[in-house]
């Protein structure tokens, strides 16, 4: 496949999906995009809003502060006006806010200041939430385990409680990159205060934490105030299992069932697609050294359910740009296609 044919075919496929607009089968279900789905574009917030509008979506989730050009009132108001004109509801987030996590970066000041800035941006943009997260799976292997980091994250959240409550913004904590399992995030939310704190649910990250997505939803659904969703393919190998995230409808998750139950447990919350596809993650659970981050979990019913989930799939290839195609252009086209197919699947079959 040559460069021109690859890019032309991908663009036509995405356009055809957008033109075939079908209302979601679940009454009232809103469908949106997390900007990270098309991260290779390098776009700023205004371009992501424009793209969400071109896809006829209900929401656009700007999930990182770096996508904003500044935080001046006039600039943020301009973004809100743009979104309002297009009929797009904005959601806003930042990255990690746990000071003891390996993911913490002081780009916007202290963790407390970073979350405060996110709340400010959320208020100005009309977002009902300010999303953040703890860290990633590496934090589970540190001294004190994940609980130490949970406690530090709760401190940061509580430092912003009055600000969030005064602005009418809820703080949404994501289960991120295998950092927390559903029962741990639930406990964090309840300890911080579920009146102003909730979950940003991510079924793809749930699979990395060895939880079957529908079981994960049953725990966190009642706490969910925001979402970043994708599908997952999984298959067995000699060391355990391999996970590869996919476009919605192309993995093992029953998203028709997921969307219906999501709407029941978290009414009014949009399903926002965050496709991060094209690479595989080995889960070497048959090796003893794998279990340090998850003490005691191997003997649980939840783990057995996850293993059964991983046994249902088959190997799929990782993404690789075709020969003769600019790698950056190919990556952008691939990401746009993954997002377009996901939102279309949700419209047709959710």
TrEMBL record:
UniProt xrefs under InterPro entries: IolE/XylAMocC-like, Xyl_isomerase-like_sf, Xyl_isomerase-like_TIM-brl
Residue stretches making up the Xylose isomerase-like TIM barrel domain: 67-276
A Pfam family hit: AP_endonuc_2
SUPFAM superfamilies from the UniProt entry: Xylose isomerase-like
Annotated Gene3D superfamilies: Divalent-metal-dependent TIM barrel enzymes (3.20.20.150)
Name this protein carries in UniProt: Xylose isomerase-like TIM barrel domain-containing protein
Species of the source: Brevifollis gellanilyticus
């Amino acid at each position: 496949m040559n460069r021109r044919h690859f890019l032309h075919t991908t663009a036509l496929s995405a356009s055809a999906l957008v033109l075939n607009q079908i209302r979601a089968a679940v009454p009232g279900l809103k469908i949106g995009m997390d900007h990270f789905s098309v991260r290779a574009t390098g776009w700023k917030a205004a371009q992501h809003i424009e793209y969400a509008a071109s896809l006829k979506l209900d929401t656009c989730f700007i999930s990182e502060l770096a996508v904003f050009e500044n935080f001046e009132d006039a600039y943020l108001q301009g973004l809100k006006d743009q979104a309002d004109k297009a009929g797009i509801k904005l959601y806003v987030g930042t990255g990690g806010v746990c000071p003891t996590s390996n993911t913490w970066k002081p780009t916007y000041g202290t963790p407390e200041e970073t979350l405060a800035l996110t709340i400010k941006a959320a208020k100005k943009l009309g977002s009902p939430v300010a999303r953040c997260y703890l860290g990633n799976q590496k934090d589970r292997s540190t001294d004190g385990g994940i609980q130490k980091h949970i406690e530090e994250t709760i401190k940061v959240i509580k430092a912003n409680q009055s600000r969030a409550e005064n602005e009418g913004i809820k703080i949404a904590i994501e289960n991120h990159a295998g950092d927390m399992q559903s029962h741990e995030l639930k406990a964090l939310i309840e300890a911080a205060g579920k009146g102003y704190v909730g979950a940003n649910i991510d079924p793809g990250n749930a699979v990395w934490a060895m939880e079957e997505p529908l079981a994960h939803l049953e725990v966190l659904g009642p706490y969910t105030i925001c979402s970043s969703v994708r599908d997952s393919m999984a298959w067995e190998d000699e060391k355990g299992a391999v996970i590869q995230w996919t476009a919605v409808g192309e993995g093992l998750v029953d998203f028709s069932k997921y969307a219906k139950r999501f709407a029941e447990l978290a009414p009014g919350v949009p399903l926002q697609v965050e496709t991060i596809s094209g690479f595989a993650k080995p889960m070497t659970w048959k090796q003893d050294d794998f279990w340090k981050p998850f003490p005691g979990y191997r003997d649980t019913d939840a783990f057995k359910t996850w293993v059964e989930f991983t046994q249902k799939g088959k190997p799929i290839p990782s993404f690789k740009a075709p020969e003769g195609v600019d790698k950056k252009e190919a990556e952008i086209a691939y990401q746009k296609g993954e997002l377009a197919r996901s939102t279309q699947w949700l419209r047709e079959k959710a």
